[in-house]
Write a structure and sequence with these properties.
- This protein has a single domain, classed as 3-Layer(aba) Sandwich (Glutaredoxin), CATH 3.40.30.10.
- The protein starts with a helix and ends in a 7-residue tail after the last helix.
- The N terminus is likely disordered.
- The relative contact order is 0.21.
- Helix 3 links the parallel strand 3 and strand 4.
- About 35% of the residues lie in helices and about 15% in strands.
- It has about 210 residues and is α/β, with parallel strands linked by helices.
Amino acid sequence: MKYRHYLALGAVLSLAATLAFRPSPSSAQMDTDAIDTFTTASNSLVGKPLADWGDLHFVDAPSRRSPRDFRGHVTIVRFWTAGCPRCRASAATLAEWTRRYQGQGLEVVAVLLPNKGRDVPSDERVRSIADDMGWSATLAVDDDWSALERVWAHSGPRYAVSVGLLVDRDGIVRAVHHGGYLSETDPRGRAETMSFRRALQRVLAGEDGRI
């Protein structure tokens, strides 16, 4: 009887230890249906120049561009991964914003983060993937994810790697989307999306876009 008691106690202690030391999921591993806990587009990057993204490859010529090449435009830089439902929803939102605000100088740069450990897709393949995802944007590929790390610059927690940055005509970051659903209708990301959009409208109007 005592032997069975000790076995049961050992099993309970083993389970408790496993749960206690289980690592928390990374931003890329979070459940895509989880509620987005970010409700504002504020971040320590806001008010600072957009960092140089390094050797970022653009699908259409010129294949090498720097953030300075986008000065004079209001730019949204959005990172994304193929097949991600959050990115698909975000692509639809940004496509709609592009149609609505392109005449006011909005340009969206959609940066693909390819699967690590696999060959980088060709430009033609990137176009095909982007078309399937619903992107209407200037396409770029961050081959080794180094541009993401440069731009994000350890600026704090994020929901996912699919972050977005609103950059004004002078190259200053005015709002940050921490990944997840960029959607005006989906409750999983609506609050942060609306904060981001309000900043966008202020920047397009020539205001400082301060959140």
